[in-house]
Inverse folding.
């Protein structure tokens, strides 16, 4: 009998202790309902105790994140105007000193424990979660694929040419979690029932490897968006657009959109690549150049293969850009720059544009990198 | 035992320091003493857990274990109580200071299996202390552990930049330092015994 | 291993930060990899800080090529590839741009590739990545490259 009773007593003691823990947990970890005020206008009342990123997502406000809130990418930064405690060790690696002065926090690390006020870029309030299906996967070059996604729910998307979406990649291979990456929309806003993305294969890249090696037509995908502050400013200045590789995406959207709206502005589009095999959509843009007198397409190869028999411009895109700005484009007209590409290319082009009299505030580029 | 609680408090901090005289509670001692701030945090947590568990276990021992004659099950029951107290402490720390919670990381739940905690409870039971003696003994041992880890953290910070041989740098030197500290504390042992 | 290393090793597995991870098919644990590589480097008389400085210099020169291969300091051909976005360090102490430098020694054809993150891992953590990782910096190769 004792053999039965005694383990029972131990279990009873453990049970009582567990009960105490549950009660303490309910009391200590219960933050009640809290109010989040966004940009001083939108408010939401939510259950406290959950990190800001997920709390906002549960209310339909999607802050871009690449790692899904695990604290390993540093993308989900939000300006928090109220006091939410000191910076956590997990935030230090991603927040610069200037950002600390502005109270920028990592929203996946900050738990919402009381009423707070936050500030986020305006367009994030309009971003939605979309379900779509992969309609087509096209190879445009040896390392770039064009993805066409048909929207299922919501059925249409409202965006400005130049914006991007955050595509969710499901777990695959050795990767056990969902990853998210940003890709600019290359189709124009007028085609609002589907979007097109250009995805270049990056060696070892989590998302691009999936798209190139695993993604199939007919597959369902999710994305959030649209995001981004890269769009056409409504002035009459000459537009100097420069892109390379998959950087073509937002500019294609921009240019087609302007054409469809019959905008009367002079547009120059410089597309830099290494050799013929890196070029794509050349026929499309040359056709457009014939139809639209405002539009000038200048592809430039920096190291063409002999068999390319290339008759166009040769040299680094920055040198070709410089040449045209100095000699082929009207020096007296005001100009705006629209750039998309790697940070190195963007920096170099900004320099060239500044040297040719384009003010830095008038040079626009996609900052999500 | 006839030893008066205040003497017991003093003795358990200095002359019979649970870490330096009994060598209990070493693993988190060595790991966390790299950083002074987290050492402080952990010291506080250990003191709290030690005090609370020693007293709670006294009650459990004298009002549950002994009357039901299940002394042989005391190890299990003591550990279960310690685990529960640590769990509650974790939740409270997370609420009050999330930054300390993240800094302590894995070492907070590891307090449960810190042999110093169980050791103090067992000493309390072995030496048959009264409830007041248990309170002061637990508190004193905790404070002693805290003192020892803060001392070591301060010393480590200083010797960090010393040109030690590569093989001894870090853990090796720490062990030697602890040994020397223990020898220094033995100097106290002639004063009062905690028995 | 210390908790920081245990956490870093977890972050180095494929899929957590990069799709291939940082450990290749190395069976050793992180602390062992670092220890043995430190030994190899000192045997080859290579100093981590000096190597990191050289790598930074090479990168700064070669970015001017905008993706074209460039001859740097007359000895090496370097080409920089850049992808958008940032990659965090597995030790959780910083995020880095995704720039990769492909370096080839003009005389003996030794090749190595490294990224901004590789330079940080080498300099701050003495971590050259596991054997089998596409970005492993093999000390022997490094020696040949630098000669």
């Amino acid at each position: 009998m004792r053999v039965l009773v005694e383990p029972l007593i131990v279990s009873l003691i453990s049970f009582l202790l567990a009960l105490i823990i549950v009660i303490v947990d309910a009391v200590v970890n219960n933050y009640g309902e809290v109010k989040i005020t966004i940009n001083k206008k939108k408010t939401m009342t939510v259950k406290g105790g959950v990190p800001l990123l997920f709390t906002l997502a549960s209310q339909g406000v999607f802050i871009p994140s690449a790692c899904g809130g695990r604290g390993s990418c540093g993308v989900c930064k939000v300006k928090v105007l109220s006091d939410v405690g000191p910076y956590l060790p997990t935030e230090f690696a991603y927040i610069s000193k200037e950002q600390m002065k502005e109270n920028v926090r990592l929203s996946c690390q900050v738990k919402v424990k009381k009423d707070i006020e936050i500030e986020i870029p305006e367009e994030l309030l309009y971003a939605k979660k979309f379900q779509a299906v992969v309609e087509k996967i096209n190879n445009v070059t040896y390392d770039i694929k064009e993805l066409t996604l048909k929207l299922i729910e919501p059925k249409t998307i409202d965006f400005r040419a130049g914006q991007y979406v955050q595509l969710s990649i499901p777990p695959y291979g050795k990767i056990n979690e969902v990853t998210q990456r940003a890709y600019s929309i290359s189709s124009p806003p007028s085609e609002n029932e589907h979007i097109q993305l250009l995805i270049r294969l990056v060696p070892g890249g989590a998302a691009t490897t999936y798209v190139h090696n695993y993604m199939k037509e007919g597959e369902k995908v999710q994305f959030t968006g649209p995001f981004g502050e890269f769009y056409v400013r409504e002035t009459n200045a000459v537009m100097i657009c420069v892109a390379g590789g998959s950087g073509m995406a937002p500019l294609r959207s921009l240019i087609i959109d302007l054409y469809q709206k019959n905008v009367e502005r002079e547009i120059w589009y410089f597309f830099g690549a290494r050799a013929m095999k890196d070029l794509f959509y050349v026929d499309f843009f040359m056709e457009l150049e014939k139809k639209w007198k405002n539009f000038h397409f200048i592809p430039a190869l920096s190291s063409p293969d002999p068999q390319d028999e290339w008759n166009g411009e040769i040299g680094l895109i920055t040198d070709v850009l410089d040449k045209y700005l100095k000699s082929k484009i009207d020096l007296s007209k005001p100009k705006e720059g629209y750039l998309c590409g790697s940070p190195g290319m963007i920096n170099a082009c900004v320099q060239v544009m500044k040297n040719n009299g384009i003010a830095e505030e008038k040079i626009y580029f996609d900052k999500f990198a | 035992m006839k030893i008066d609680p205040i003497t017991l408090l003093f003795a358990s901090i200095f002359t019979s320091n649970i870490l330096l005289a009994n060598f209990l509670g070493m693993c988190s001692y060595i790991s966390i003493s790299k950083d002074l701030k987290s050492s402080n945090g952990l010291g506080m947590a250990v003191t709290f857990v030690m005090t609370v568990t020693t007293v709670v276990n006294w009650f459990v021992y004298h009002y549950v274990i002994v009357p039901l004659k299940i002394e042989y099950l005391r190890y299990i029951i003591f550990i279960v109580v310690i685990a529960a107290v640590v769990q509650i402490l974790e939740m409270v720390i997370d609420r009050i200071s999330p930054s300390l919670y993240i800094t302590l990381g894995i070492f907070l739940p590891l307090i449960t299996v810190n042999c110093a905690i169980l050791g103090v409870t067992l000493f309390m039971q072995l030496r048959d202390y009264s409830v007041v003696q248990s309170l002061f003994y637990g508190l004193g041992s905790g404070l002693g552990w805290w003192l020892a880890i803060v001392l070591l953290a301060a010393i480590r910070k200083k010797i960090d930049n010393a040109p030690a041989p590569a093989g001894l740098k870090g853990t090796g030197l720490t062990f030697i330092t602890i040994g020397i500290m223990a020898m220094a504390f033995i100097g106290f042992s002639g004063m009062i015994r905690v028995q | 291993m210390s908790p920081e290393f245990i956490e870093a090793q977890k972050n180095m597995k494929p899929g957590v930060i990069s799709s291939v991870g940082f450990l290749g098919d190395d069976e050793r644990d992180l602390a062992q990899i670092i220890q043995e590589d430190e030994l190899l480097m000192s045997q080859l008389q290579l100093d981590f800080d000096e190597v990191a400085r050289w790598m930074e210099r090479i990168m700064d020169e070669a970015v001017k090529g905008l993706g074209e291969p460039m001859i740097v300091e007359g000895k090496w051909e370097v080409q920089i590839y850049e992808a958008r976005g940032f990659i965090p360090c597995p030790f959780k102490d910083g995020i880095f741009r995704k720039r990769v430098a492909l370096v080839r020694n003009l005389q003996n054809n030794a090749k190595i590739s490294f990224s901004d993150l590789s330079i940080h891992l080498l300099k701050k953590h003495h971590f050259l990545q596991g054997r089998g990782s596409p970005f492993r910096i093999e000390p022997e190769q490094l020696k040949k490259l630098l000669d």
Remarks:
- The domain at 33-122 of chain A is CATH 3.10.20.30 (Ubiquitin-like (UB roll)).
- The longest strand of chain A covers residues 128-139.
- Chain A touches chain C at residues 66, 71-75, 90, 93-94, 171, 173-177, 181-182, 200, 202-206, 209, 244, 272, 274, 302-303, 316-318, 342-345, 348, 368-369 (CB under 8 Å).
- Chain A is about 25% helix and 30% strand.
